[in-house]
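@channel sequence for tomorrow's demo:
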Amino acid sequence: MEPFEQNAHAVWNEAVAIQVDTAGEIVRQLKLTLERIDALTAAQPTDWQQWYLPQLRREVEQAIVQFGEKSGDVMAAGAEASWAKGVELVDQPLAEGPGGSAANLNNGAGRAGGSKPGIRLEGMVPRLDRGQLLAMQHFMTSKMKDVSTVVANRVNQELGLVVTGLNTPAEATTAIQGLLGGAVRRRALTIVRTELGRAFSTATQGRMEQARKAGVSGLKKQWRRSGKLHSRRTHDLADGQIREVDEPFLVGGEKIMFPRDPKASPKNTVNCGCTQLPYMDHWQVTHKGEKPFTDDELAGSRAKRDIQQIRDMPALASGGGAEKGSGWQTAPRPVMAPEDLALRTQVLAAASADGSAGEHLAARNLVDGREWPPVTSGMRYRVTLPADLKLVVEKADAQVHIHHDHPDSTSFSSADMGVLHDFPGIATSYVHGHDGTVFSAARTEGRYTKALDTEVAEAVKQSLASAVKAGRLWSREASEFRRHAINEAMARAGVLDYNVQWSPDVEVRWNSARIVIEGAIDAGKQAAQEWIGGGR
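structure tokens (generated this afternoon):
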């Protein structure tokens, strides 16, 4: 590992150590507060006379307020240190690494061995504006005070229960101990990890933006996973992503400028331990892409074993969909003629224009070139064939392409499959999701029936439900990809010619959930084969 890479990882470790030390001090303050409250309640008369309650509450509230103030001070100091480390995460690797195009602006000493000098930002760019840091410190302090306010209210409730005779003093003390040692402790530690990490990443992003504006061309950023055993699956899948400094990462389908980006959703930021590292194409780093999982990580985390299978797939390694028979059988991308692309545009434009939740349908006949402009029934999850189009597709000598939209961007429904197989004049049917995903389907020599669809759907449903229950799949993912799994299973059983092209955002979610949903597809395929083999 080169010195500049060692420095980057050392700074990252130091930033984590700041979080650990800050969390330790917060826990110590909690412990002192609990000891003080214990002493106050233990000193009271056994009958907890009602006349003493206001004074006791004031003393307890004072102890909790002091906890909030001291914790706020601790957080502010931790944020200051984290901010400084965020700047160092950019400055030190640039100074130690092989110089880039801005090296001639550097008046510092060169690296040992006579190699090209690094880039010393100090003196090239001003200090990072501390206005954002001050705002973040104020926010952190207020969050810790909010925690103390919640604690004060809960403690007052417990004391009030004693006065009314609903609880004993001993029960109140136990409840207060559980509150401070349980939920409050967890909440405080979550704030420490999230907000100090946010200060660290914000400073890193700001410093890299300064460097680019100062003329350091070629500087990029790379997402690096936390190394936690039980981390977010989507964050591990994002590991190794390289982006321009001013471009966001794509994490679980969400665009995130940097780890713990305040503009990102809580599901992707709270307790996140990832970081972004400065990166240049000519740097010789240990891991150009994703960081391999250790044996201990693979042994201790089923999710990481799933991800490793995804990484090992040739289809994903090459950045495209696999051909059938190579690794997993993966639906190829739909192929659309210019006329089909035009109809797709018309359908989506019609949906956008009327703003309804209903589906829209357009069509063209390849035999005579006739087209049907978009129509809608205004009904959610349904659109009917125009009467004149229905007359055409009832005849087998027609070759009609049907285009319709799905506002929720899911694959063909069982009703869609029924229409495709009931009308011999439909050559290909397309579904256009509002997120940019495209699905296509055509008949094969295999016999499709509604009963077969139901049988496959039940097998897929059970497999997905088991995965959700086991924590291997989010319920949202199961819902989003359920119909795709059903249709792909029927395609693998030879009943359907099925294709899909995911939008970029959805493809990230698909790759994240793929290893689990493949199990559901296999279950559906087996159900279809048994159904077909039984002659039903």
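heads up for whoever presents: The chain has three domains: 3-217, 218-297, 338-533.
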